[in-house]
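[RESIDUES AND BACKBONE]
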Amino acid sequence: MKKVVILLIIAILLGGVGVLWWMLQGTAEPKELTREAYTLQEEGALEGQLDFAALQEVNPDIYAWIHIPGTGIDAPVVQHPEDNGYYLTHGPRREENSYDAIFTENYNDKKFEDYITGIYGNSSEEGVAFYDLYRYTDKKFMEENPYLYIYLPDCVLEYRIFAAYVGDNSHVVLNYEKGADEMAREVYLDSIMEPRSMDAIIDRNTSVDYNSKVLTLTTNHKLGNNFRFLVQAYLEQIKK
């Protein structure tokens, strides 16, 4: 009989510990959504490799990470499978806000293999997603900070920034068919290298050409809804 009582007491104590652990888990603060917090530390991990399994527990739409040295842009990249407007009103944790998400549309694949890929973010005030893109209106800043990095589960894509200017609100990815057609790529690159904006910053000493895979970072502009600020970069190397 004593043995049964002891076993019951142990079971009750263990049950209480389990409930307490569950309660603490429920009230624990979520991990800060930073690159450092999700960098794999385990043996065999590549330098700087991110834990995308853990990131997708935060939000299954997270599939990449963008980092632009010299700026505050260091954040996950998301893509909603169905609603391309979803991240205009939601943040990277799927919380309701229209400031923090950096996203692509489902017209582009998630491996950045299209010749033209668009990434979008808000820049309406300091500290939000793409606010620091405007630092590329300074030629010297572009010269000193020419690279951006896209982290994927199995590699890091290194891009070289070569253009920054004010453009219209046309849909670059769809207008040029994602660059699938060679002639479309030629027209697209020509439009970048000869923009209408007089204050455009263009680095003509890079090796970008019609066969380069170009990343277009797009954000809103103070001139209104008919304008966008664009920063262009081309894929220079893949690090594995």
About this structure: The chain has one domain: 52-239.
